[in-house]
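Good day; I would like, with your permission, to put a structural problem before you. The record follows directly beneath this note:
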Amino acid sequence: INRDTGEIIDCQVMEIEERDANFQKFWIGHILAAVDELSNAKMKLVFYIIKNMDYSNNTLIKTIQEIINETGFSKMTVVETLKVLEKYDIIRRKTGVIFLNPNVLFKGGTNKRRAVLIKYNDLKNQPELPFKDEQEENEKAIALSAIS
């Protein structure tokens, strides 16, 4: 609409949508500090986590025992690797769930990454849930409800 004359003028409007397409982004700077403390086997475990995680929320829902069973790594290797990754804030853990820092790896757009990052940062303030080793199925159900 012309403000001066009131005449209606047809025109084409283009709306530009910002997208990151469907790329998986990996910020290598965050993981480089941890690499010095990770052996070849431990790096393979890092890639196992990345390959098997749920990209919609950056989680891997597995107990340590399930990871051991699926990878063949020793319990010591798995536990030590997870501790190093936690030390460098590459992951955060709740029993039965590994949360990968979206500032390290993420697949999706900027807004989705921000939403997952907020949930990831909220984990820092949540106490560990009181799980027992023999309650693996309950662990998963409770952990899933905690991230929803």
